[in-house]
């Protein structure tokens, strides 16, 4: 998604709008404008939470706007600072930014302030994806996937419109003994539903599928059109930390705390059914796999791990299924575990437990240039998202907007430019390799049990 208006929205004041919630979900307090705002929505009622730290955005207030000369430079544009709660997930869609925390809230940001919000009954928000039709999918600690949609009459009002699996499907399966699987000793669960935390979500828009990964060691495949669970795959020997739809060749990738990355190929059956077959184990190692991001146009897959490296592979166009992808080596820009990845065009962003964000640009072959190291968080960077601006500066340099969420409770908005002065380092890899790099060359980093 490319939207040059996205960055500008964060720098322009806009009236706040009250938010409500239904279907058993509690509404969040309606945000209000501060005294420095130009106007206030006529429908927004006064709120006792005017002093909330979410309302004021350091760095985006008066006097903090970028000057014309500095507008093209790499740096921090602003922060959303919260006094309590860790930021575990975020997603950017158009001029809106969605953030999920361990307070069970999903907050929606627009025009440098809180625009709306909704709250689930239980389960911290570990993953968020936004579909093209406006539906918002959230994955939770309690093993549930909830579906939300903004009201057509008032976009600030979000309502829960369903959950995965649908209640009817779950009830029909629960009366069939054959639909139960063993989850742990002397316990069983209906195969339709995750019985542990939903750690990750990935949307394959072209195929109309949603992938969910869980600490229960499985990934599930959901058909977006009718919210039906098509498949549940026992994928790994430990928690599934990340899942990513490739966007090419009907492939999907899963990464686990067991140190492996597996490649799955989708085979379509009758009536829209799917069957995912493991094509290869892309990576084996002692360090946990924490994130996967795919540059679909370039057919490059980036894998983050707890040893601080980001390894990448490329699938060649027109190659047969038996051909192994080419390994391009590892990007090493962090001293601790890499926890999050995002890709837009030729640029990849990695967030780390070392509290920094590295921004890389893919050049010719397997070469990558590091455009910037972004520092400012005081806790591990748990999630990142990014988008490329459609406009370029006067010298033809391209720019990107990067969003980062941290366990320090803040979300930061950055601008990155590919101007020559922004480059700080180049990776040593010069060509794609036909075989994976030897794992013995990696420096293990002991990761937490689950990400």
Automatic annotation (TrEMBL):
Keywords: Repeat, WD repeat
Renumbered ranges of WD repeats: 191-232, 233-274, 331-360, 374-424
InterPro entries: JINGUBANG-like, WD40/YVTN_repeat-like_dom_sf, WD40_PAC1, WD40_repeat_dom_sf, WD40_rpt
Disordered: annotated span: 18-44
Keyword Repeat: yes
SMART domains: WD40
Domain of life: Eukaryota
Compositionally biased tracts (Low complexity): 31-44
The protein, known as: Vegetative incompatibility protein HET-E-1
Organism expressing this protein natively: Triticum urartu (Red wild einkorn)
Gene of this entry: LOC125507947
């Amino acid at each position: 998604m490319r939207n040059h208006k996205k960055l500008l929205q964060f720098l322009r004041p806009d009236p706040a709008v009250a938010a409500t919630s239904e279907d058993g979900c509690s509404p969040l307090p309606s945000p209000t404008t501060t005294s420095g705002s130009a106007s206030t929505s006529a429908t927004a009622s006064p709120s006792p939470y005017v002093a909330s730290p979410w309302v004021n955005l350091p760095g985006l207030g008066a006097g903090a706007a970028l000057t014309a000369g500095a507008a093209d430079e790499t740096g921090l544009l602003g922060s959303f600072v919260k006094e309590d709660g860790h930021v575990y997930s975020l997603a950017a869609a158009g001029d809106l930014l969605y953030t999920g925390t361990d307070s069970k809230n999903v907050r929606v940001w627009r025009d440098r302030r809180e625009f709306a919000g909704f709250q689930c009954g239980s389960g911290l928000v570990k993953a968020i994806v936004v579909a093209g039709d406006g539906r918002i999918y959230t994955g939770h600690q309690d093993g549930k996937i909830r579906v939300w949609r903004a009201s057509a009459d008032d976009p600030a009002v979000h309502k829960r419109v369903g959950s995965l699996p649908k209640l009817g499907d779950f009830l029909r399966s629960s009366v069939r003994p054959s639909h139960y699987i063993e989850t742990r000793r002397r316990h069983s669960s209906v195969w339709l539903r995750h019985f542990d935390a939903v750690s990750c979500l990935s949307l394959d828009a072209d195929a109309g599928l949603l992938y969910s990964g869980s600490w229960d060691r499985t990934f599930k495949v959901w058909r977006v059109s009718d919210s039906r669970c098509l498949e549940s795959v026992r994928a790994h020997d430990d928690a599934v930390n990340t899942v990513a739809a490739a966007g090419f060749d009907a492939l999907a990738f899963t990464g686990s705390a067991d140190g492996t990355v597996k490649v799955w190929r989708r085979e379509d059956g009758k009536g829209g059914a799917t069957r995912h077959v493991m094509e290869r184990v892309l990576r084996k190692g002692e360090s946990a796999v924490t994130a996967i991001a795919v540059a679909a146009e370039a057919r490059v897959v980036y894998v983050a791990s707890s040893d601080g490296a980001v390894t990448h592979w490329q699938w060649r166009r027109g190659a047969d299924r038996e051909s192994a992808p080419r390994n391009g080596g590892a990007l090493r820009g962090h001293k601790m575990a890499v926890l999050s990845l995002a890709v837009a065009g030729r640029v990849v962003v990695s967030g780390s437990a070392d509290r920094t964000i590295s921004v890389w640009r893919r050049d010719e072959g397997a070469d990558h240039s590091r455009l910037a190291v972004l520092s400012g968080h005081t806790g591990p960077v748990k999630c990142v998202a990014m988008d490329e601006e459609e406009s370029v500066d006067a010298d033809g340099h391209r720019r990107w907007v990067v969003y980062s969420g941290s366990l320090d409770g803040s979300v930061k908005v950055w601008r990155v430019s590919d101007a020559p002065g922004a480059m700080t380092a180049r990776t040593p890899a010069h060509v794609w390799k036909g075989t994976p790099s030897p794992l013995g060359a990696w420096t293990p980093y002991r990761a937490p049990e689950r990400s």
